[in-house]
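Record format v2
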Amino acid sequence: MTGPGAPGPLYRGSAGAEPPCGGITVISGPTAVGKGTVVSALRLRCPDLWVSVSATTRAPRPMEREGIDYHFVSNEDFDDLIEHDGLLEWATVHGTDRYGTPARPVDAAVAAGRHVILEIDLQGARQVRARRPEARSIFLAPPSWEVLVERLVGRGTETPEQRTRRLATARMELAAASEFDHLVVNEDLGATVESLVDLLGLATPTPAKVNP
Ligand code: 5GP
């Protein structure tokens, strides 16, 4: 592996014995449902969360930063990660680029008692369910199909062909919502984040009111 974006030894292999689990939460949902925005807001609300940074063969978009938004890797580097059992799960998403969760940092975070968040697609969610059955899974749904289309068109980051492909995947993903432990409709960002905080058991108890 070469280049500044290449995953180092940290990403090779799994960290030995299967770690104790229960600390992993998978957040999935169709394109443009707002997964990224929800996870960023959740991280601000609960700074102790550990959010996995995926590896991807997709080219960075403007403003995306290596190691923060993704580890941007070549096809060869991605093959190498698969070959060395460096990914907890991986998938070709929207029929184009590959995305995967580096296994070792997740194992280390779980072993350190961190609450781990994976923001991944349906195929990845299924693999995590098979490999880490204790992991919790949450499906983020749009308020309606029309709202989803509006959001996808509105964000303007895809070509018309890419949009068509993403919407076809979205239909399939919405049909799989019942596979998940919980479903949260992302209508209002604040309300969605509070639902997640509740589901993850992260709400801090309000201090008892003391009368003067
Ligand atoms: P985008 O290219 O818009 O950043 O992401 C496209 C899709 O890839 C999203 O549905 C996102 O959830 C999914 N994705 C991001 N990282 C991973 C990953 O590590 N594994 C899998 N399976 N999907 C991912």
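The two ends are 65 Å apart (CA to CA).
DSSP finds seven helices and nine strands in the chain.
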